[in-house]
Write a structure and sequence with these properties.
This protein is an alpha+beta fold and 158 residues long. The protein has a single domain, classed as Immunoglobulin-like (Sandwich), CATH 2.60.40.10. It contains three helices and eight strands, in the order αααββββββββ. A four-stranded antiparallel β-sheet has the order 1-3-6-5, with no helix packed on it. Strands 2-8-7-4 form a four-stranded mixed β-sheet. The protein is elongated, with a radius of gyration of 21 Å. The termini are far apart. Pfam families: DUF1573. This is DUF1573 domain-containing protein. It comes from Flavobacterium celericrescens.
Length: 158
């Protein structure tokens, strides 16, 4: 009986210390969740499935130094909650902002992506990679821009 009381007390303390904290979707994925996902995959079970409204967004011609933003809409076409554990741009100039909460089957959510063209003259193609709990485990999409260099600076690809 004493062990149960200590266990309950420890669980209560953990819940109290973490319940007030704002969590992202990545914080909600545990090692146990990942093992359960692998088991679901192996058994051909219910999984989330990512559907994007577009795979590429072209900002067209912009001026060097412009900060531009777009939105990709991700829809969960699967049968389980979709969790985006991480969203990462191929360069520090590309910053994605994924939804913080899991996306229910059939629901959609925006992923905002900003691009800072400072120091990036010329044709630019940047990739955003999502780490997810889908069968594939990751999804990618791109942004493009033709960045007009500041006056007096020759265009080069960086």
């Amino acid at each position: 009986m004493m062990k149960k009381s200590i266990g309950f007390l420890a669980l209560s303390v953990v819940l109290m210390t973490t319940s007030c904290k704002q969590e992202s979707a990545a914080d909600k994925i545990t090692d146990a969740d990942m093992k359960a996902l692998e088991a679901e995959k192996a058994l051909g079970g219910k999984l989330p499935k990512v559907k994007l409204d577009k795979l590429v967004h072209d900002f067209g011609t912009i001026n060097e130094g412009d900060k531009v933003e777009t939105e990709f809409i991700v829809t969960n076409d699967g049968e389980a909650d979709l969790v985006i554990a991480e969203a990462k741009g191929s360069c520090g100039c590309t910053v994605p902002q994924p939804p913080k909460d899991p996306i229910k089957p059939g629901d959609s959510a925006p992923i905002k992506v900003s691009f800072n063209s400072q120091g990036k003259p010329g044709a630019q193609e940047k990739t955003v990679t999502l780490t997810t709990n889908t069968e594939n485990g990751h999804e990618t999409f791109q942004i493009k821009a033709n960045v007009t260099p500041k006056a007096g600076i020759a265009a080069t690809n960086k």
